[in-house]
Design brief:
This protein is of the alpha+beta class. The protein folds into three domains: 2-101, Orthogonal Bundle (Butyryl-Coa Dehydrogenase, subunit A, domain 1); 107-204, Beta Barrel (Butyryl-CoA Dehydrogenase, subunit A, domain 2); 213-362, Up-down Bundle (Butyryl-CoA Dehydrogenase, subunit A, domain 3), CATH 1.20.140.10. The chain contains eleven helices and nine strands. The longest helix is centred in the middle third of the chain and has 37 residues, at 213-249. It is globular. The structure holds flavin-adenine dinucleotide.
């Protein structure tokens, strides 16, 4: 894990601002991160991965989140893609796809459609098997990392249920159209994906085809939620460090900002926010690592808490830095834009509230 952290730090260096302003990470850097197994670090060594447990991968994800939420977003997508293959693929499919994800290729995970955002049961993308061929037709929106991806893990309808299929991004009929102006995580390669009569071999259809969409999607989303939550803990760490350093050195009214009580309160709130987010992430990762039944719910709790704390914490950090943090590429300004998007993805704040309320109401999992 220490080696992975050092490699990540070396790859990002001081380039996060440049990537954010340019709206892209150099393709070679993305490939290198993938080749070193950093983007899906929980994949086992037998498939070329680093084999980290959820806690160690979470800490790596938080570190990435503290440096660059765009790269961290790619970790979330790649990890979700790998987990979906791990969970639903046969041994042959795991052997076919996982070494590609740890060997330099990247993947996007496509659920959302223009008419199916929070409500994935409204998906219209059709996956259909005819003999040795699987046909995929539909249109996905906002797929993180799709602009860099060579593989797309696509969810769609399959008969009266749902299915997941791995689609090469260069298959005939696939068209990838970058989201030109994302508000945050600007270098994460978000793109709309058009799938027009795409054909892939039948062995690209993961097992579980025909299962309810909620079951398939929740499995992938549980990884995504935990990853986003750890990323938000990293955002909070970066905001706390930046605000604390500034408040210690900047003087107004003859003393450091940190000695003014109202600013000191901002620092205390940020410190608590980071701890709260971290503890929720650690708990959910422990559930993952110990295979506990409450994992699904605890991943929702972690994502819900950490994303809300990150939004509030980033706003607080901008307040402490004031004009120094009011420039577009500054770490706290980036954090402010990036954090807000974390309240939307992998189940929005409202959808998380509904899931948690349902958990309370039914007393289930
Ligand atoms: P809507 O579903 O239209 O919701 C609008 C608002 O209404 C939200 O506040 C929502 O919480 C609220 N709402 C909806 N239903 C209810 C309800 N029943 N009760 C209460 N409130 C409700 N998709 C992918 O498939 N793959 C990706 O990699 C991916 N990456 C993304 C990255 C970013 C940065 C963003 C912004 C989006 C990404 N998405 C991705 C899409 C994302 O999953 C959707 O934006 C999300 O599911 C919300 O859907 P929507 O935007 O259509 O909002």
């Amino acid at each position: 894990a220490d080696g992975a952290r050092a490699a990540l730090g070396e790859l990002v260096g001081d380039r996060a601002e440049e990537w954010d302003l340019a709206g892209r990470i150099p393709a070679e850097t993305v490939r290198e991160a993938a080749r070193r197994g950093l983007l899906c670090a929980q994949v086992a060594a037998e498939h070329g991965g680093l084999g980290l447990d959820s806690r160690a991968n979470g800490e790596l994800t938080a570190y990435a989140g503290s440096l660059c939420s765009s790269l961290r977003s790619l970790m979330t997508s790649q990890g979700m893609a790998a987990w979906t293959v791990q969970r639903f693929g046969t041994a042959a499919q795991r052997g076919m796809f996982l070494p590609r994800l740890t060997g330099g290729e990247t993947a996007g995970v496509a659920f959302s459609e223009s008419g199916a955002g929070s409500d994935l049961s409204a998906m219209r993308t059709e996956i259909r098997r005819e003999g040795d061929t699987v046909h995929v037709t539909g249109a996905k929106v906002w797929v993180t990392g799709a602009a860099y991806a060579s593989l797309l893990v696509v969810f769609g309808t399959y008969g009266s249920g749902a299915a997941v299929v791995v689609v090469p991004a260069d298959a005939p009929g696939v068209r990838i159209e970058r989201v030109p102006d994302p508000m945050g995580c600007r270098a994460a390669g978000h793109a709309d994906v058009h799938l027009d009569g795409v054909r892939v071999p039948a062995d690209h259809l993961l097992s579980g085809a025909g299962l309810p969409v909620a079951l398939l999607a929740t499995t992938a989303l549980t990884y995504g939620r935990l990853s986003v939550a750890w990323g938000c803990a990293g955002i909070l760490r970066a905001c706390l460090d930046s605000a604390a350093a500034h408040a210690r050195t900047r003087e107004q009214f003859g003393k450091p900002l940190a000695d003014h009580q109202l600013v000191a309160r901002h620092l205390a709130e940020l410190a608590v926010a980071e701890q709260v987010a971290l503890r929720c992430c650690e708990h959910a990762s422990a559930c993952w690592d110990e295979n506990r039944p409450e994992l699904g719910t605890q991943a929702v709790v972690a994502k819900y808490v950490a994303s809300r704390e990150a939004v509030q914490g980033a706003a607080t950090a901008v307040q402490v830095l004031a004009s120094r943090g009011a420039r577009d590429g500054h770490p706290v300004a980036r954090a402010y834009r990036d954090a807000k998007l974390m309240e939307i993805i992998e189940g929005s704040t409202e959808i998380s509230q509904l899931l948690l309320a349902d958990h309370v109401r039914t007393g289930r999992g």
